[in-house]
Amino acid sequence: MSILSAPFQQLCAIFGSITFFQWIAIFVVFVFYIYWSLTKNYGKFEKQGLFSIPPKLLFGNNQDLFLQTKPMITCYREFYNQFGNNKCGICYEGPEAKFYVKDPELIKQVMIKDFDHFVDLNFIPKELANMPVNEFGLANALGDEWRALKSSITPAFSLKNIKNIGTNINGPALDVIDSLKKCQNGVANMELYSGYFAMDCIGRIVFSIDFQTTKSGGNDFVKYGDGFFESWRFAFASLIPSVAKNLNFAMFNPKSTGFFLKLAHSVLSGRDGTNAYPPDVLGLMMKIRDGKLIPEDDDEKGSKQTMAAKCMDNDMICRTLMQFFMDGYDTVSAMTTMCFYYVAHHPEVQDRLIDEVDELSGRVGTNITGDDVKDLHYMTQVYNETSRLAPFSFTLRRCTKPWKVPGTEAVIPVDMGVVIPIVGLHYDPTYFPDPEKFNPDRFSTENKHKITPGTFIPFGLGPRQCIGMKIAQMEAKILMYQVFRNFRLEPSESTPFPPKWRSDHFNRIQGGCNLKLISRV
Ligand code: HEM
């Protein structure tokens, strides 16, 4: 008796009877099918009057980005310039057509006025977003679930709470100073210390735990925090999302997501049963879960409270906490690093910054609080100018209700991705004259009103704006305050100006940020 099943035997018989010319025909049909699936979206929206840049087969308009032949910032700047005077148009990410919005008025319409048509962030392709391996907290939540979660979690990030956090993160800043003093009058890689600091801050803000990252000169928290993003994963999933879906493909490194999820679950289970809600982000989420927190903008029936409590089970708590590590570590670390970089390369800016720091230091000394930070006006200008020059290059939306493009016949359909070109706007000479120049005075009281609304958006815009914006700014300012109280920074040979961006990262520079430390005390 044959060990092969009957259907398999039939299949073998069919294949065996196919002639050479029939094989060629099958191959040709297969090649045409692949070609058709890669190009079926090309030209569809152009027929409705939208501009596009001619796409390349397989890569669309993103070849350099996918192959990492150019840094992300460079790719997105070139791309923005290729759109010329068009207010919007179509760009191709691999085979997928996306709506590209360049005009600030249209950007405000998409992100604020017509938000109902573009509710979802779109960092994970739709095909992959609903797989457990890619389900994270707030940033991935959709529609009403997202609304309820965001309005419940937002109080943890309110100005009042942030001010309290200020005192909390002074400790991690002083740890950095202790370490820097050991390499006094030497060279320090400020990228490393900004990373340690960002990790220690997030440990305290989220769990009230001191990770002691700086004190121990690095640990598993930074190892796994550094490992979250692997650009090849984004390239693969964007180019062939249907294959990625079948492979149950993870958009972020599963070792890192697994590490922080396990951490979140273990801290949560340690707290449960104690009936305590410590004043940190985890404590707040536990309150939401237990129906003990009423969102500020809730209606009389308490609909948002009910909805938030329903969404906020232990799994969602841990996924959201993990997401705060994902979103709040690398971004803060990179931006703070770049603040040091630009200041070190601009001694005249550093003089003014140090004057301001010394003035505050005369009043408060080491113990700066969240309230004191608001007096650091020039530092705010420095931070803003840094986030203009070294932002995350873009943000995304997904169309959730058909939207007619003003002034055209084109209609953006549900599920279409939308690209908002942050870095392109930030370097556009129409909005920021002499855009390559590091000039914090663009953000002075006299000048900031001249900035066209919708053109300076390092943290996004509208209801989906970054929830961690104020924390990120507070963290950077407290570290800068402590560093410039103690040191002057000077560039080293290995960290030249202008910045040489890395091609495998969003906004980090090649070789780290090695700066000379000149003691001031
Ligand atoms: C310099 C630091 C940071 C930068 C440049 C940054 C940038 C951004 C941007 C551009 C967005 C998309 C906003 C939009 O499309 O309108 C975003 C969203 C988000 N960020 Fe940040 N971020 C930073 C720090 C943080 C921190 C510290 C946290 C958390 C502790 C955080 C958590 C989030 C979350 C949860 C979202 C999604 C919000 C939502 O879906 O409603 N970010 N961020």
TrEMBL record:
The keyword Endoplasmic reticulum applies. Its cofactor is heme. It comes from the Eukaryota. The keyword Transmembrane helix applies. The chain crosses the membrane at residues 12-36. InterPro entries: Cyt_P450, Cyt_P450_CS, Cyt_P450_E_grp-I, Cyt_P450_sf, Insect_CytP450_Detox. PROSITE patterns: CYTOCHROME_P450. It is found in: Endoplasmic reticulum membrane; Microsome membrane. This is Cytochrome P450. It comes from Tigriopus californicus (Marine copepod).
